Structure formats: structure tokens, C-alpha cells
Amino acid sequence: DAGVIQSPRHEVTEMGQEVTLRCKPISGHDYLFWYRQTMMRGLELLIYFNNNVPIDDSGMPEDRFSAKMPNASFSTLKIQPSEPRDSAVYFCASSGGQGATDTQYFGPGTRLTVL
Amino acid sequence: AQSVAQPEDQVNVAEGNPLTVKCTYSVSGNPYLFWYVQYPNRGLQFLLKYITGDNLVKGSYGFEAEFNKSQTSFHLKKPSALVSDSALYFCAVRDKAGRRALTFGSGTRLQVQP
Q1: Are strands B10-14 and B108-113 parallel, antiparallel or unpaired?
Q2: Which residues of A touch B90 (CB under 8 A)?
């Protein structure tokens, strides 16, 4: 399996612009997670889905952030408008599937820089 | 609420010596515990987990961890460190009966000197 795929790997944008991050989970996994990593706050959950349905979005910072999972093989995290404090590495992870385990497998991350 | 503490920002060890990276946790119910490793500019890589059963869990690359319920600890260990083990290590927990998302510790940087 190719593992969790994220794109882009790096994104540099200016304050106020819309940013869309993309994730393809491991085939057969039914849970998808979005995490954010910063120096100040470490790794924190933003939102997670089960069978394409958002289950817990309590970590989404504010209305500028939105996430969707239109099908089992694709999810997006959108920031509109972006701000410099959104600069971080955003990770997508997936878990579950047949013989389900609780191990979350992480993608390589998207490093976002908002100028 | 659940939490994880990794009391050491950095651990230094000489190659060939045993290493320990400490982790304590707090969770209301039964814990699922995980260790991940992160190399520079890479994602998190799963090392091992405790779900149930034996308190000593063996994982990838010769790492192991011991679950201690009374001390609420899950320390990561390796008998003989390699320079290539140098990386950032994260401990994580979730409540068995709770939400699926993981709560991570702040991370411990392991430096193995040749």
C-alpha cells in the first residue's frame, strides 16, 4: 500500500488567501484524522471522520477552518482566510479497516507557511 | 480529559548503551498507549502500542515499552542504541471507550552519540 498521501508537501501563501490541503487515506481504512503540529502547541487534533462523517471537530480553531470527506478515499482541510498564526505542519492519519486496529498511520504532512 | 507527559525534552545516550524515554499518562478509563517516532521533515512513524495483555510490548527496530498501570507509565526502551535512532519520539494515549483521536505528549528528542 502507498500509505497515507498528502498534498501539497509545502505551501507558501499570503495572509488572506484560501488554502486547501488534501489527503488520501490508506485504502480500506474507515477513520481519518487531521492533526496540526506547531512548536508552541505540539501535536493537536483538529477533526476526525468515521465512514466519511465528521465525528469530533472540537479541535478546529475557528470558522476559518473547514474539513470535508466527500468519499472514502479523499479529504480536504480548507483555511479561508489564512493568517500567519496558521503556519504549521498539518498531518493526515487513517486507521481501521478489516481486522481493525487502533493504529493510526500518518502521512508525510503539509508544511504551511502564511506570510 | 486525557493527557500525556514526557518529562524530558532531550535524552542523550552513547551508541551501544541502553536507552529509556519516559512517558506517563492520565486517562479516565482503560488506556490504549502508543509510541511514534518522527525523523526530520517526515511524518510520524508507528513504533509500538499497548492495547491489552502482556505489559511488555515489543515493536519495530528493537524497541520495547513497559506498561505500568500503578505508575501510569509507558516508558520506551531499547537495549542497545544506534546513531540512527536519533529522532523525535512521541508518546500518545486514548481512552479505550472514548473518542478515537490520540492525545500526544510534547515529544522527546533522542540523541545517540557515536
Answers
A1: parallel
A2: 43
pLDDT at residue A103 is higher than 80: yes
Place of cell 488572506: A16
Contact B44 A91 (CB under 8 A): yes
pLDDT of amino acid A114? 97
Q: How confident is the model at residue A7 (pLDDT cuts 50, 70, 90)?
A: very high
Which positions in chain A touch B42 (Cβ < 8 Å)?
108-109
The string over B96-113, giving b where at least 16 C-beta atoms fall within 10 Å of a residue's C-beta and e elsewhere, is eebebbbbbbebbebebe
Task: Dump pLDDT digits (tens) for A55-73.
Answer: 999 999 889 999 999 999 9
Amino acid B70 reads S
C-alpha cell at A16: 488572506
Q: Which residues on neighbouring strands pair with residue A13, listed in sequence order?
A: A114
User: Rounded to whole angstroms, what are the CA distances from B99 to A64, A107, A109, B31?
Assistant: 24, 21, 23, 12
